[in-house]
Amino acid sequence: MKATEVPEIAGAYLFEPTPYADERGFFCRTFDADVVRSVGLDPHAFVQDSVSRSVRGVLRGLHLRSGAGEAKLVRCSYGRIFDVVVDLRPDSPTYLGRAFFELSGETQATLYIPAGCAHGFQALTGTADTAYRIDRPHDPSEDVTIAFDDPELAVPWPLPVTSMSQRDREAPSLAEVLKHQEG
User: Fold this and answer.
1) Could you tell me if residue 142 is left (phi over 0), alpha (psi between -120 and 50 degrees) or otherwise beta?
2) What is the pLDDT of residues 37-82, one digit of tens each?
3) Active-site residue, selected from the candidate residues 95, 119, 132, 180
4) Catalytic residue at 44?
5) Known catalytic membership, residue 63
6) What is the mean pLDDT of the chain?
7) Which domain of life is it from (predicted)?
8) Residue among 13, 63, 112, 119 flagged as catalytic
9) How far from 111 is each of 31, 114, 148, 150, 181, CA to CA, in Å?
């Protein structure tokens, strides 16, 4: 497994495993505590695993947590997704930086997203399963959502949106979220 820094987002990493394929399919390690530790992360910090299943065109995000934030590992275990990270940490050298990835069940790559970054994705295939490993229990009172189509972020979503949650549909702009966080 190889760990690569994400230049657009300070402290973010892409973990790329080496799948072993044969006539039966493939096998690969999707989490390795030693590799995670080698980039300065505590592998024992992750306390909750979740999975979502989306169909082609579904958009989830852009989400983040207020307070202490939430670091997470994100992996598409089946299908393909277009994944987006936005750095919203005012003291970060990559503040307001954006990074885009295609994560897939074929590669099983995992993206580490530091606390204080917004995250969202769009399903590119008929079915896309996305696994999350987060570093603290979910508290819905800390949920923050930013409009997926905010012109300041100009995320190049690859497909028309077929479905999204009511919360995501009604999300405020980045400017409104930042103003609220300052106040």
Assistant:
1) alpha
2) 999 999 999 999 999 999 999 999 999 999 889 999 999 999 999 9
3) 132
4) no
5) yes
6) 95
7) Bacteria
8) 63
9) 11, 10, 20, 23, 26
